[in-house]
Amino acid sequence: MKTQTHIPVSAYKSGGFIGRYQKLIRETVIPHQYKVLCDKAEDTEKSHVIKNFINAGKALRNQDTEDGFYGMVFQDSDAAKWIEAAAYSLAVNPDAELENTVDGLIDIIADAQDSDGYLNTFFTVKDKDKRWTNLLEGHELYCSGHMIEAACAYFEATGKDKLLRVMEKNAEHIYEKFIIGKTEGYPGHPEIELALLRLFRTTGNPKFLELSAHFLDVRGVDSRFFEKECKKRTWQVWGMSAPDTHYNQSYAPVREQKDAVGHSVRAAYLYTAMADMASQADDKELFAACKRLWESITQKRMYITGGIGSTVIGEAFSVDYDLPNDTAYAETCASIALIFFASQMLTNEIRGEYADIMEKAFYNTVLGSIQLDGKRFFYVNPLEVIPGISGEAQTHRHALPVRPKWYACACCPPNAARLISSFGRYAYGEDESTAYCHMFADGEVSFGNGIKLRCETDYPYGFSVKYTVKGSGRLAVRIPGWSEKYEIRLNRQIIQPENVNGYVYIEISHGDCIEIQLDGDAKKVYPSAKIPKLSGCVAVTRGPLVYCFEGADNEGDVISLSLKSDGAIHPKSCNSDALGNITLLETDAVRAEGVNEGLYSYIKPKLKEFTAVAVPYYTWGNRGENQMRVWMNER
Amino acid sequence: MKTQTHIPVSAYKSGGFIGRYQKLIRETVIPHQYKVLCDKAEDTEKSHVIKNFINAGKALRNQDTEDGFYGMVFQDSDAAKWIEAAAYSLAVNPDAELENTVDGLIDIIADAQDSDGYLNTFFTVKDKDKRWTNLLEGHELYCSGHMIEAACAYFEATGKDKLLRVMEKNAEHIYEKFIIGKTEGYPGHPEIELALLRLFRTTGNPKFLELSAHFLDVRGVDSRFFEKECKKRTWQVWGMSAPDTHYNQSYAPVREQKDAVGHSVRAAYLYTAMADMASQADDKELFAACKRLWESITQKRMYITGGIGSTVIGEAFSVDYDLPNDTAYAETCASIALIFFASQMLTNEIRGEYADIMEKAFYNTVLGSIQLDGKRFFYVNPLEVIPGISGEAQTHRHALPVRPKWYACACCPPNAARLISSFGRYAYGEDESTAYCHMFADGEVSFGNGIKLRCETDYPYGFSVKYTVKGSGRLAVRIPGWSEKYEIRLNRQIIQPENVNGYVYIEISHGDCIEIQLDGDAKKVYPSAKIPKLSGCVAVTRGPLVYCFEGADNEGDVISLSLKSDGAIHPKSCNSDALGNITLLETDAVRAEGVNEGLYSYIKPKLKEFTAVAVPYYTWGNRGENQMRVWMNER
Hints:
By secondary structure, chain A is of the alpha+beta class.
């Protein structure tokens, strides 16, 4: 049973910090990404995704497909994620031109659907006979999943159901194939499971719930399925290793899985669907598995920035406590998926830790992936960058010191766009009488239960949050794990509601004003002594923001700095041309000087007092190549 | 022109520490390795190397080769390196049974040589038509090089020339092919260049000097040679990337190369030959290239242990200052090759730094590669090991926490055996009137110039060295770079000879006694501030020995320890069952305690005083799996 449900995206009208990001997505990212999809963006790798759909339509009509299919096997999903982002934007900011563009693209997509409901440009353009023969690598179910999400989002935003009908027909086709036709197998890349749950809720069609449950239930029961599938065919996409059942979480039935393993995006999409299904179907065994996997991630395999998947090899989780800073993979999509997972955990159980991690991943890894001007993106989010090594050494090729242009494999940018433009879904939730505030976000929100809130805050730089209430019921506000001290006022009177698992519950009436003062002190964070890479290190944070030290603010040299063990941290507001309105942290540090030219020396370096400046991690890499470090040595 | 030449192995009769290691090689390693070559060693991967030679002989006679060829394409070289090690052992310790065994093996090898002089079991057994068509991967020249070294060593040790004649004929065949026949190309794995120089000196045949010079001179002139070769054939060994010309140092002519790049063993074998040729041919341009490459290695790309090749990807050098501790490759063979390179630099120029590095690589990486009982070996020599991560994480698969059994690719163990049993060649050198002491080593040495020295020392644990002289001339003794203070007595009187580039020169007469007192203080070493992985770290050393901290001596937990910045280090002699007679270092440290169970915490850890115990790096991993760390955080 769901503890609470998500609110529609249209229910939250953002202001403040989130409002500015949503504006950036709306005004810069969505138009830029559409140009990319159309191959009209400069200095960008070819996408061809819209051409793929056009060509698939032609292939169905037996017309010449000209330039055929181009791109990754999952190229279709770029269009799906873009439509989803555009839909969320339209949900709160009507824009006839954008809606018209989306409608045109939907027409093209509808035209690429086969008469039986099949929809995938790779297989339709290249070879229809190979359909459904390579679940390991083929991404047919994955692409369908993303397009289902897009269809639901666009229907919710505009009431237009053309794409929804297309994807219902597609889902019926898949149901036919796997349920009626008893085709063996499950997706090589989980995603459709969570999409089908959403499609079920949007359409009410129980087949889609059944199909989602089917894919979750059969996964890993025959853990050699992909190996067998592999032997039946003579072609491959990349030649992915079928016996590596950890990579795609097929090594055991999902209810028996204990450690977060394998490709981190695959993993977190799967866990999201599991958590959603657990609350949807009131499946306690499934939820217990989700809890174990959540703990595996957050207690043993996650960066302080909410990054997950620490190794480039397989873009995957590594073993416990293996969290290298410089070779971190920490893919943007993986942190987005972690937010989805956390958000679905909150539909099972109201606990502050889920929202804490959601916020951590959002304000650090996800926002950090986007250049401040919205034009370039990190796929990989390291916690340390050293020009000359990062992006250069064989083991660091993936860890770039500045955001690259749009890639051929463009999973992350449109994923970040859809998340940010739907921020309200994750920040707020509701049940019949309660308004849940999981994350603080300036703006107005209208709940289905009749409560309306106006939230005023300068969060994440200001730490007072004021809610003005319309309607009545109960307000549930998360008290962040990082805010041990806080003060709550109801109509200017201090109140002390019990903190239940990280949330305070307040009865509210029309016209009430609730003011919350959180802890705005800058704080040092100490790593577990079990993380070898962080011995003797410390990081600095303020509120949900993790900070980092960049060369630009520290004489070009961060790696010779150590923070003083008893040193102070002074927050300082600043309006920087490059970084905008932010709060810097000035920290007491020492710089090692006098170390000789060679590699090793018996001469002890002199330590010189230095005021080191830290900036929010999400702003790093916006001033050209320079050193960056989150974890600093402490003396 | 050579500043000095090597002494024959037979000229040094070891005692003390080196004597014990040579005994271990003689009594345990050489017999064990022979068993491996014969596939008679238990718990060891199949070698088949002797069977390969037997089968090659059969193939030449068109007999059935039964079980054919087995092993790596360079399997022959295991036999060569073993013969070389055995020869060095025989040079000082006659052993009729061992000599008989070697003679038998040489008969088998001679039998495997084709009538034209060709000798390589892979191609002879598998496919004669493929000879010389894959210099990139085929290792024919590499294997010939090793067998030439073995032939010279065995001839020098025993006066027996059967293998020498075989290899002269083989070298003549190669001369015919590449000089007379003008076959294009050069070795994919340098090695024969240095071997041919030795063969030239052993036989006096100038063709071999010419052939060595040819291979050096043509290398990288056509940097696309391997690419072109690749296109001419339809088969491959592993499918090595021909365009990766850095991997095998073919990206530029050798005289133009600046940075040490690519596969580190290939690189250092090549540089060794270049340095040898530079002094042999008095080639100043070549020596200038050697100096640049030496500086690239020792000033930017070398571990404190003398390990080189910091990345597992291509077993290669990385970029400057990229020296990870836990994922270090630092192959044993690469440090052995670095010793060869250093030793050849000393034939060009007498400078203490060459011998300093030679000694550093020997006492730390090379000795550390061998289990103290001589039965297991490290190929990879990390500077940090954490059970659970090392050997387990995808990025750490190569960095094992304990020495593995003999591998199928068994390059390192016999390489270490031949180096240790020929230690005198590296420790001592001579010119017509000078006896050079590059490394301190208890025992007796007889120079070709008539000088004889008896050296008494407990080095590397004792720091007084006493030379008793027979004959007369000049003694050149290296004063190690780590011994800033030292005292020299000639017949009990303190003398103060000038220190010229790290050597003191003393006129000696028959009966003289020279006593040298070196600095036996334990010392902290500080890394360059340019090495990101070592920010705020310190290592402890004493004399040539680098120390490490193991769990076994430190309550099982090394990673929560920091050394105190102003803390003392106390050497303590100890006779340990597991580690033998060693000197421990007790160091003032603190342990971080009270860090909570999760990954990150706002609670500052308590620092508890702790006396941390360090053991010599070469003894690590002899007490089962446990944490090990060379570089410690400093507070």
